[in-house]
Amino acid sequence: MLHGIELVTQDLIEPAQAEFILFNEMPLNSTLNQYRSIVKHVLLLETVAIRPLNWNLKLHAKVDLIFTWNNQIIDNRKYFKINFPNLLLPQPFRKFYERKSFCCMIAGNKNSNFHLELYSERLRAIKWFEVHQPESFSLFGFGWNHFLLPSEFLWTNKIPGFGKILSKFLRYFVNPGIYPSYKGVVVSKFETYSNFKFCICYENIKDTPGYITEKIFDAFLAGCIPVYLGDKEENLPFDSDTYVSKRDFNSYEELYDFLVNISEAEYNIYHQNILKFLSSNQSNLFGIDYFSSQIVNRIISYKKALKNE
Length: 309
Prior knowledge:
Elements: E1 20-24, H1 29-34, E2 39-44, H2 57-60, E3 65-68, E4 79-81, E5 101-106, H3 119-132, E6 137-140, H4 162-173, H5 189-193, E7 196-202, H6 215-222, E8 225-229, E9 244-245, H7 252-260, H8 264-278, H9 281-284, H10 288-308
Parallel strand pairs: 1-2, 2-3, 3-4, 5-6, 5-7, 7-8, 8-9
């Protein structure tokens, strides 16, 4: 109980009995209509590439407060800024010589036909390493041992049954969906990243102001230098000396040559810059405390405003 508010999950109370509902991602229109008389707030975290429903403005009009990373719609009246929350507890980094493996990627196997998607760029990185530097790269995450329908065929899922039939055909005749670099899922991102010098760290979409997920923070906290691709560099809250920008290289061959020639002294400077950022006020905006306090304080203020009407 905080400020007279007890926050519980829907398995403990029927939503219709609640004073307000806080949805994790935008629900269906039918759900919103079902609880028309109840105050409704929403966390919008998934991008349009994964969950187009989140960005349906007609649905936005049916809720009271919206919390999102999307800088383009923040107005501090209905739309409030949050970032993906991270447990920011830096620990001593393993040294350059203690990291026995070169480069990895931890990501799920997904795709999208959204024009700013970066899933296809992850695939290009994986395939380059598997062909040219297979001993220097390891792939981790869910779904890489299963065939995924290529993005150019996603439209077939709109035809009942056809998408599944096409997937079986392509898997059998075209691509078995096996990645030689795949090492399975990880129990701990921190422990996995701590064994590698570098990681391929791409957001799900690019050039989207405010969209910074936990991916680069997972790498930072383990002292694994990220090769990063996401929003434009001038919009990022961390300095360019904390990561390697994929945008600086015209090919993966150029990128690899740069990484493999980084000295231990240069690597240590990256570590120093990362630790400086993690101890800054700027990084606190990506912590759990900021995330929770922003949501709680705005909901309390909204509740008081309703009582004063």
